[in-house]
Amino acid sequence: MSDEGLRRTYQGMIERRGADRSLCPPAERLHELVTQSGSEDARLAVANHVMACPRCLPEFELLRSVNAAMPERKPVSRWLALAASVALLLATGIIGRQLLRGRDDVLREQPAIRLISPLEGQFSAPVTLTWNRVPDALQYQVQILTPDGGKAYQATTPDTTLVVSALAPGQFIWQISAEYATGVPLRSRPSRFTITTP
Amino acid sequence: MSPHDSLSPALEATLARYAGLVRQVSQRHGLSGNDVDEVMQAVRIRLWKALGEGERIAEVKPFYVRQAAMSAALDMIRQRRGRREEPILETSAASIGSVPTHAGPGDQVEQSEVEAMVGRAIDRSPPRRQPVVRMYLAGYNSTEIAGVFGWTEAKARNLLYRGLAELRDCLLAAGLTPETLG
User: Fold this and answer.
1) Over the stretch A104-129, which tens digit does the pLDDT of each residue have?
2) Rg of chain B's alpha carbons, rounded to an integer?
3) Which ipTM value was assigned to this complex?
4) How far is B172 from chain A, CA to nearest CA, in Å?
5) pTM listed for this prediction
6) Looking at residue A2, what DSSP letter applies?
7) HSE value, Cβ hemisphere, 13 Å, CA-based, for B150
8) Which helix (H) or strand (E) holds B75?
9) A 102-161: CB under 8 A from B
10) How far apart are CA A147 and CA A168, in angstroms?
11) Cβ within 8 Å, pair A70-B63
């Protein structure tokens, strides 16, 4: 019983199904589903209806596409951005000095987490992020930031590759943190890449 | 003067790029390009009405465009639902009988029985797995499912794996062979 066969059968069922709109959730519930607001149980119930309703499905897809096409980037105040930049510079300077002087034995003994791809350069969305596996890591946190330090994307995965499609064209910085049972993460060096306009 | 004339070239470029991204996201799921065009036209009008011309319109941020697009899409859905409220049942009933098919009457009956069995088997699965399985069968992959619910991809994959296994077991128990579904 192949996945394709099941999908064909299910999609045929949806196409032939009549839609009694009195059973459909209001448009606001679809909005909550795509923006992940409201309780998860309520969103699961709405999704269960939407995925079986030939009328709600295209409406959901329109809202999902509009929402996913550009990650929400809340405006950051200039002072906050300046403070974040100064803090980042200080932190980079301190860590850099420690590494150069070889004083941090703990850091040197840890296995290195290396970004494999993308390393600089221009790419079109979706972009596939790849890094090396490190022993004993429970999972990896992927962080993609805008050049001004804003969070563009964040996800956690047990794999060492992740396909990210929800990025608008622009410059990004990405970094991986390996998470351990001890609670102390191991971070990769950050790297830059650019998503080009399709 | 139309809204199109009064928007700055930079904002027009932002709108065009955004519309392209919306199409790109929805490409796999067959969203109508006309719907995207309609939403983007509504966004132009909203920006034009709200901000007028000149400096203010040149300062529109991308996230504001997205908010305007989401609001326009919601309004479009509400309006369509309002317009279709009465005739929708008649249209649906008529369209069920007129589905073009190359299969004979016997095949149609068998196909509808198979579809009903699949529907019942999904209905019997645990509530948290039902939408995950339905999304997958509707054409979404585990990454997209995770994105909708704010889960990790591993969690979505796990729920999907269990849900599909249960669905297959249930269909086999009901006497549906792998050959029936192809």
Assistant:
1) 444 344 568 888 888 888 888 888 89
2) 22
3) 0.79
4) 9
5) 0.58
6) -
7) 12
8) helix B62-84
9) 125, 139, 155-159
10) 13
11) yes
Query: What is d(CA A9, CA B181) in angstroms, rounded to the nearest whole number?
Result: 7
Contacts of A72 in chain B (CB under 8 A): 63, 66
Render pLDDT for B74-102 as a digit per residue (tens, 0 to 9): 999 998 888 765 333 333 333 333 334 44
Sequence-distant contacts of B2-5: CB under 8 A, at least 24 apart = B3/B41, B3/B44, B3/B45, B3/B47, B3/B48, B3/B49, B4/B44
Report DSSP letters for B125-148, one per residue: S-TTTHHHHHHHHTT--HHHHHHH
Nearest-CB residue to A166 (from B74, B95, B147):
B147
**Structure tokens, A157:** 């995965």
pLDDT tens digits, one per residue of A38-75:
899 999 999 999 999 988 998 999 999 888 876 445 55
For residue B8, pLDDT beyond 70: no
Are residues A162 and A155 in contact, defined by beta-carbon separation less than 8 angstroms?
A: yes
Between CA A5 and CA A14 the distance in angstroms is 14
CB contact under 8 Å between B84 and A21, yes or no, is: yes
List CB contacts (< 8 A) between B129 and chain A. Answer: none
- Give SS3 for A54: coil
**Cα-based distances in Å from B158 to A141, A163, B114, B117, B135:** 18, 18, 26, 24, 14
Contact list in A for residue B63 (CB cut-off 8 A) is 70, 72-75
